[in-house]
Structures are given as structure tokens and as C-alpha cells.
């Protein structure tokens, strides 16, 4: 009786029952299922579902106050572009803000990073100083600037008065308010890009510069033909990220001007927030969100393409 | 010798210029923060004086005293700490666990799921503001601290970062632990997690800062003054004391200084975190 059993054990499993997976596979799959399911459920609820809902809601006249929310196909979209001048103004303001602030940011941060990369003493000190505003709460920064920009008690007008220059109510006049926001935004998050540029600069091997010096290249030539090309990926990355982040600007306007004066600082996100949470027109505001998303994706694609063709080395 | 002397002088002149420009820039960066600190020691009258004066005549703690006694500042601080610490701890846990699974396990649908996760990185938060509000409302979390924590328990960027980091850990190490009879969760907790120090530090700092400084989401889901976090409370405080620059600046100091102190202590980690977080977007 013991013979067959022994031979069974010796031959192991019959071919039909041969394992397809390594031992322990079942335990591993159980672990994956148990650990990943709750995490993916959270992603579903707070990442995938909201994206779908945004698009879905944009085709309805939906307000939490209304009992019925009719399907109105693309009328939220046509309304946004034809009957909502404040939204059109918000697109204009946002683009103006981005087109000035993003290049300004890079024109200031790249030279600062280059300078920081050159010096040996106090490097950590200067880096910390330039970086400090970037970690401060943006609301606090905005309030500091509101004080600096105050028409009477503000330091900026006070300093201008020393040179007998007439100051302005920077936040109260439509021709200046957006520029004031640009200045404070760039001041606040310059440090971040300085750090990224500095990290990029540190990846360029010293031997490149040494070889160029041997060949007699001056400092401008070394910058133009070594630093700039080798930094092109970092620059592209910084430019795209800065643009995307500036396209969503909200806090300075929400805290200081609520979009005024005369809608001159109304931005897209401010208008979305305004429509959704002050007027409770959530279907309409969803359509505006989708428009913002399409704009962001479009701008990213265009930038990546343009910069890639210009800077392919 | 004759050739090196002028060269050395030229270098030192350009170095002096560099330091000069950097110092001017540093003054521009520091002046507003300094102005905030100086104003917080002024009286309300001094803060509004025309023309403005830099230094307080008689430095006083009155503004701090008023902020800390007339506003529930301690409560706001506590709310901010609860929210930011919970969000950071949860995101570190979920990101490292999911990152480990995506890096080291093969299962059906893995690549599709991961691609979908990466896709959500293209969608910035303001775009999904309204649905997220409706979902949180449906879960009956509005106007509670949970509204600030629950939607931020997972991060696609965190999973991505951790997966990159964990992929570099050799498989042999994990297989050896399995042969030794370690449980699958035990391998994650005792073998993988302790090796993630730098990545955890970076993601932790980045997450904490984003949560600590967030304004838009609390603005939408929190109404009660007692449940506000610091940035929202500061804006609220400002709206009721708009002309009391002394008080507003003292409150701003109280919000900014803990973060700046932490930054000065852990500079290297902060900078690494921000460089890594650049991948977000």
C-alpha cells in the first residue's frame, strides 16, 4: 500500500496540476489585493471620479439649491464664451499674468542660480535667503504685500516719496493691480526655481568648463555654448511647471481684491470659485473647469513642442 | 607670476560684483519679511503712520498679546497641526505601500492602473474642486477637519516617487526575506520602509508644506471659525482687522516663523524635497 504513495510523492505533481507561478504566489496576490484595494478606492473617489464628474456636470444646469438639474448639452460652454464677459476678462487677465510673470521669473532666477553656483562663501546663506519666501504661507505673504502696497502707510509709496515720485493706490487702480500681483507672486516663488536651476547647474561636469578654458573660451562663450545648452532640459521643465502653476493663480486675488477693481484681477480659478461657491452655479463652473483643463493641456503640449524644436541638442 | 597677478585681481573684482548683486537681491527678499517682523512690534498708530517709519519707537508685544488672547489662535494652530500631520503620515504610508506594490509585484492590470494614476497628475486641483466638494458633502464631512484630511490621503505623485525609489532595491533581498518566512506586509514594513529615508523625507516635507499652506480647499469646506486652519484663519482675521496692520503682521509672524525655523534646521532636506517635488505637475 505504501508503494504508490511514495511514487506519487517522488514524481511530484501530475503534469495537469503543475504550478504556473512560483511558490508563495497566492500569498503575494492576496497581499496586493488587500493592500492596494483601499488605496485604489481612495484614488477612485478623490482622483478618477472627480475628473469624470467635472466633465459630466459641465453638460447640466446644476445647482445644489435647485431640485431639478436639466441636461443642457453644450450651452454652459457657449454661455461662457458668448454671454459671460467676466469669464473672458478672467482668461485675458490670467494669460497676461502668465505671459509676464513666467518669463520674468526665469529671467531673474537663472542669473541668481548662476551667481550662486559661482560663489564659494555664504552660498548656503544666500540660497536660504532666496528660498525663504517660497516656504512661507502664501496668504501671509499676500498680507505682507498688502501692507507694503498700502497707498498711505505702505513702504513702497513711502520709498517713492523720498525720490519725489507720486505713488499709487496699487491695488485700487485697474491699470496697476495685476502688476502688483505679478511682483508679489514672482517674489514669493523665485526661490523654488533658483533651487531647481542650481540643481541643474550642478549636473554639468567641471571638465567641460576646464576644457573650454584651455581652448580660450571667455565666460560669455562658456555660458552660451556649455551652460545654456546643457541647462535646456532644466529650463524647459522650469518654464512649463511655472506656467502651469501661474495659470492657476488664485490666492493673491482672493485675499486682496476679489477680482477687482473693475475685474482687472479676476483670474480663471477665481471666477470658477466665484461661480461655484458664491453663486452655486456648479454645472456652469464645471464647464469653466473643463475649459481650464483643456487650456492647461494645450499650453503644456505647445510649450513642450516649441521648446523641444528650439533646444534639441 | 606676472601673468597670475592680474588674473587673480580680475577674478576678485568679478567675485565682488557677484556678491554685490546677490546681496542686493537678498535685501529685496528679506525686506518684506523684516518689515513684517518690525511692524508686529509697533502700535496700531505707528503701523499706520504717514510717511512710514521702519523701526518701532517703543517696541511692544501688545500685538502678539492681542492676537493670542482675542483670537482662538491656539485652536487654529492645533487644527493646522492635526491636519498637516495626519495628511503627511497617511500619504507617506499609502504612497510607499502602493509604490512598493507597483514596483515589485506583477498582477493583472498593473500597468493600466499605474498609467491612470500618472494621468491624474496632469489634472490640477482647481479643475476638480467642485466634484471633490460634492463628494465630501455626500460623505457628510463638510465643516469638519476630516474634510481637509480624507481627500488628501493618497497622492499619485507620492506613489510615482516611491515606485521610482523602490525599483532600485534589489529583488534578491525581498526573495531572501520570503525564504526566511517573512510575511508580505512584514517585508514592506521591516525591510522596504526603513530603506526609504531620503524619499520619505522629501515627500513628507513637500506634503506637509502643501497642507500647512493650503488655502483654497479649506476656504471651500470650512465655515466655522473654530475649525479653521492657519492660512484660512489668517485671511479671516485680516478681513475683520483690515486696518490693524500691527495685529495682522503679528499673526503672519506666528504662521510663517515655525516653518522658517524648521527650514533653517533642516535646510538640506527641504531643498531636496523641493527639487524632487519639481517632478510634480
Can you summarize the main beta sheet of chain B?
Answer: none
H/E element order of chain B: HHHHHHHHHHHHHHH
Strand coverage percent of chain A: under 5%
Q: Averaged pLDDT of chain B, please?
A: 89
**Regions with little confidence, pLDDT below 50 for 5+ residues of chain A:** 1-16
**End-to-end CA span of chain B:** 54 Å
| Helical amount of chain A | over 70%
Count of distinct strands of chain B: 0
DSSP, total strands of chain A? 0
Individual helix count of chain B: 15
Give Rg of chain A in angstroms.
Answer: 29 Å
Distance between the termini of chain A: 78 Å
Give the overall silhouette of chain A: globular
Described by its quaternary structure, the protein is heterodimer
| Beta strand % of chain B | under 5%
The biggest chain-chain interface is: A-B, 93 and 89 residues
- What is the helix tally of chain A? 14
The poorly predicted ranges of chain B are none
Q: Could you please describe the fold and organization of this structure?
A:
The complex is a heterodimer of chains A (313) and B (281). Chain A has 313 residues and is mainly α. Chain A contains 14 helices and no strands. Helix content of chain A is 73%, strand content 0%. By secondary structure, chain B is an all-alpha fold. In chain B, α3 (62-70) packs across α14. Chain B is globular, with a radius of gyration of 25 Å. The model of chain B has no long low-confidence stretch (mean pLDDT 89). Chains A and B meet through α2, α4, α5, α6 and α7 of A and α1, α4, α5, α6 and α10 of B.
Amino acid at each position: 500500500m505504501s508503494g504508490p504513495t511514495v511514487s506519487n510523492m517522488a514524481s511530484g505533481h501530475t503534469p495537469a496540476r503543475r504550478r504556473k507561478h512560483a511558490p508563495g504566489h497566492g500569498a503575494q496576490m492576496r497581499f496586493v489585493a488587500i493592500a492596494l484595494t483601499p488605496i485604489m478606492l481612495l484614488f477612485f473617489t478623490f482622483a478618477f471620479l472627480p475628473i469624470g464628474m467635472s466633465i459630466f456636470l459641465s453638460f447640466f444646469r446644476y445647482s445644489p439649491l435647485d431640485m431639478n438639474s436639466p441636461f443642457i448639452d453644450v450651452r454652459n460652454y457657449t454661455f461662457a464664451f458668448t454671454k459671460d464677459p467676466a469669464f473672458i476678462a478672467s482668461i485675458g487677465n490670467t494669460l497676461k499674468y502668465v505671459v509676464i510673470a513666467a518669463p520674468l521669473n526665469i529671467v531673474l532666477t537663472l542669473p541668481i542660480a548662476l551667481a550662486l553656483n559661482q560663489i564659494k562663501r555664504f552660498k548656503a546663506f544666500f540660497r536660504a535667503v532666496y528660498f525663504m519666501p517660497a516656504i512661507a504661507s502664501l496668504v501671509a505673504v499676500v498680507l505682507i504685500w498688502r501692507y507694503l502696497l498700502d497707498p498711505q502707510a505702505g513702504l513702497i509709496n513711502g520709498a517713492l516719496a523720498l525720490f519725489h515720485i507720486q505713488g499709487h493706490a496699487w491695488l485700487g487702480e485697474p491699470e496697476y493691480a495685476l502688476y502688483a500681483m505679478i511682483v508679489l507672486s514672482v517674489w514669493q516663488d523665485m526661490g523654488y526655481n533658483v533651487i531647481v536651476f542650481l540643481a541643474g547647474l550642478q549636473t554639468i561636469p567641471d571638465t567641460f568648463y576646464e576644457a573650454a578654458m584651455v581652448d580660450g573660451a571667455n565666460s560669455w562663450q562658456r555660458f552660451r555654448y556649455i551652460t545654456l545648452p546643457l541647462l535646456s532640459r532644466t529650463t524647459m521643465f522650469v518654464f512649463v511647471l511655472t506656467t502651469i502653476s501661474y495659470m492657476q493663480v488664485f490666492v493673491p486675488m482672493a485675499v486682496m481684491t476679489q477680482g477687482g477693481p473693475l475685474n482687472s484681477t479676476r483670474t480663471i480659478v477665481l471666477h470658477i470659485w466665484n461661480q461655484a461657491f458664491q453663486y452655486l452655479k456648479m454645472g456652469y463652473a464645471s464647464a469653466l473647469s473643463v475649459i481650464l483643463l483643456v487650456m492647461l493641456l494645450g499650453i503644456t503640449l505647445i510649450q513642450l513642442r516649441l521648446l523641444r524644436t528650439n533646444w534639441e541638442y | 607670476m606676472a601673468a597670475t597677478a592680474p588674473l587673480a585681481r580680475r577674478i576678485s573684482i568679478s567675485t565682488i560684483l557677484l556678491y554685490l548683486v546677490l546681496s542686493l537681491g537678498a535685501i529685496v527678499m528679506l525686506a518684506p519679511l523684516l518689515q513684517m517682523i518690525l511692524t508686529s512690534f509697533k502700535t496700531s498708530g505707528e503701523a499706520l503712520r504717514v510717511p512710514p517709519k521702519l523701526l518701532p519707537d517703543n517696541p511692544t508685544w501688545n500685538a502678539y498679546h492681542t492676537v493670542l488672547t482675542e483670537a482662538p489662535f491656539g485652536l487654529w494652530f492645533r487644527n493646522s497641526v492635526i491636519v498637516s500631520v495626519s495628511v503627511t503620515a497617511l500619504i507617506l504610508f499609502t504612497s510607499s505601500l502602493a509604490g512598493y506594490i507597483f514596483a515589485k509585484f506583477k498582477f493583472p492590470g498593473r500597468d493600466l492602473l499605474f498609467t491612470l494614476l500618472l494621468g491624474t497628475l496632469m489634472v490640477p486641483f482647481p479643475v476638480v474642486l467642485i466634484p471633490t466638494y460634492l463628494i465630501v458633502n455626500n460623505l457628510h464631512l463638510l465643516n469638519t477637519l476630516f474634510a481637509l484630511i480624507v481627500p488628501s490621503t493618497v497622492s499619485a505623485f507620492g506613489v510615482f516617487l516611491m515606485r521610482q525609489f523602490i525599483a532600485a532595491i534589489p529583488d534578491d533581498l525581498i526573495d531572501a526575506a520570503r525564504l526566511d518566512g517573512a510575511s508580505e506586509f512584514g517585508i514592506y514594513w521591516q525591510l522596504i520602509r526603513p530603506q526609504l529615508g531620503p524619499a520619505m523625507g522629501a515627500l513628507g516635507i513637500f506634503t506637509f508644506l502643501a497642507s500647512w499652506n493650503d488655502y483654497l480647499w479649506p476656504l471651500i469646506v470650512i465655515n466655522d471659525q473654530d475649525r479653521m486652519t492657519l492660512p484660512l484663519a489668517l485671511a479671516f482675521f485680516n478681513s475683520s482687522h483690515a486696518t490693524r496692520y500691527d495685529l495682522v503682521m503679528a499673526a503672519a509672524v506666528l504662521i510663517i516663523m515655525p516653518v522658517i525655523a524648521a527650514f533653517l534646521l533642516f535646510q538640506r532636506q527641504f531643498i531636496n524635497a523641493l527639487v524632487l517635488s519639481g517632478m510634480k505637475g
